[in-house]
Amino acid sequence: MNWLTVTCTILVILGSLPLWVSMYQFLIIGIHSRRNHYARTAACYPRVSILVPAWNEASVLTSTIKILMNMSYPKDKLRIYVIDDASTDETPQLMAEKTRQFPNNVFHLRRENGGQGKAHTLNHGIRLVLEEDWSEAFLIMDADVLFEQNALRKMTRHLSDPQVGAVTAYIKEGSRPGNLMTRFIDFEYITAQAASRRAQNVMSFMACLAGGAQLHTRKNLEAIGGAIDTSSLAEDTFTTFKTQLAGHQAIFDGNAIVWAEEPDNIDGLWKQRLRWARGNWQITKQYWHLWFNKTAHARLGGFAFGMIWFAILLMPVYMILAATGLVVLFFSDFAWSWMLFRMFWILNVIVYVFVTLFSLLIDPKSARQSWSAGVLFPGLISLTVIVLSYFPGALEAVLLRGQEYQDWREMGIGTRVAVLFIYSWLALSMVAALLAKCVEKTPLKKLAMPLLLLSGYGPLLCAITFNSYVAELRGKEMKWDKTEKSGKVEIQ
Amino acid sequence: MKTEDQRIHVDELRKDCRIERQLLWKELISVLVLLILGFIREVWLK
């Protein structure tokens, strides 16, 4: 084996890293049945200030406030502060009505000079609310998030443990009627929250407390400086890191359920996730000393957390590395490249079956809505390769027409193109996802969803992450693109 | 803490712990399906 073959083999193996990481996370979820925080909970009803940053959210605030007021939580221990970031819609009028209706519970904090983004808005509210001694805990949420009746109570029970600084809930996609995009997000949230965050509970770290539903103790909020980070686009992840670095525990409660409205088109998703992905880069740079450095922090500096973090952050790089390795090997050592390609996709079959099935079982209620999105998550082309990889000889029959080749020169031109296309697909799928985003704003917008189905939702997220590399390298202006809300979310 | 609050807490805790315990079974079912699929592939389809 020459150096080129060895190098390319390493690239393909590196390309499979996210699959191993994903498998590891899902394998340890079962441990959550024994190793969870429930044993250390107790009935606990601290005085909670709910902070709702809002900019032109009048369409959703009425139902949000109504649902918050109907939560099964003592009303004398609940205050809702809507922090109005100089809204230009009917928010002031609506809030005047709500404060009259609930004079002891609902408060309107208005900033006349707004437009600086969610973190600044939140800080305005936090500063004012912290000045009073009343609050024992702070619930930071988004204006469109709807809490199930017992969600807050299920979160506060963890605060009976003084080690706990913050708790986050399970945010579910609640747009009805949904579409393919919202069903993809619904399934994604099972894997990224209900599954992955349980695994993080087991490993005693948390990558991110969901910005739409995070509960902090007063002690924790003061320990992290009494303010939310305003220097980045991922203020919720910064808060999560600071909480853990301050020595407090961050907990995910998968049974405290809240519902949110998520983007229903590719462009909306792209803007939202680009903000998140850029925020993750900013955190990676800010906490550069932390990665794989246990002396800096026992958990966040651990090997497992580093692997999970970089598997997500560098996912497009891994996909490009695997595709590059396979394409180069195609020309230098075809027989070996074919063997590696088959092995890579067999691993894909194993991870896909296990992760998809387990995710659907973890949340059967969401699974009833989004099982098809779960099945189609990798995209039709990758799914075809996954199915063909399962049946012995099927890939050879379809791609190599049943022939055995030692060298690429022995193949016909059609076979060469087909094999190179499939070898490159991991990288090309991101281009196809980008194309789906581009056509969505043209007269050909009807092609956007079929293209997304072909490329897959996973590759779409990778394409967005790749875009975040470019945006960060170019030092593009940090713009807070608000996700449009229509108020069509319902508690299911 | 009031007895009623305590009762609600215990009820919810019991229910949630049951959901968490079921996770282990769900994981085992997923692994089992994977093993059966692997067995079918290696024994019957080859």
Automatic annotation (TrEMBL), chain A:
Naturally occurring in which organism (per UniProt): Marinicella sediminis
Transmembrane segments: 6-31, 303-331, 343-362, 374-393, 413-435, 447-470
InterPro entries: Nucleotide-diphossugar_trans (IPR029044)
Superkingdom of the source species: Bacteria
Family statement drawn from the similarity comment of this UniProt entry: Belongs to the glycosyltransferase 2 family.
Official protein name in the record: Glycosyltransferase
The keyword Transferase belongs to this UniProt entry's keyword annotation: yes
Keywords, ordered alphabetically: Glycosyltransferase, Membrane, Transferase, Transmembrane, Transmembrane helix
One GO MF term attached to the UniProt entry: glycosyltransferase activity
Enzyme Commission designation: 2.4.-.-
TrEMBL record, chain B:
Keyword set includes Membrane: yes
Residue ranges of the TM segments: 23-40
Keywords: Membrane, Transmembrane, Transmembrane helix
Top-level lineage group: Bacteria
Stated name of the protein: Uncharacterized protein
